Amino acid sequence: MAYTRRLANLATWQLSEAAARAHRILREYLDGENANGYEYRVLAALGDLGQISQVDLGRATGLDRSDITHTVRKLEARRFVSRESDPRDARRSLVELTEAGRRMLVRLDKVIQLVQDEVFMPITDAEITVLLGLLRRLS
Amino acid sequence: MAYTRRLANLATWQLSEAAARAHRILREYLDGENANGYEYRVLAALGDLGQISQVDLGRATGLDRSDITHTVRKLEARRFVSRESDPRDARRSLVELTEAGRRMLVRLDKVIQLVQDEVFMPITDAEITVLLGLLRRLS
DNA sequence: GTGATATCATTGGTGATACCAACATACTAA
DNA sequence: TTAGTATGTTGGTATCACCAATGATATCAC
Question: What is B14-138's CATH number?
Answer without folding.
Answer: 1.10.10.10
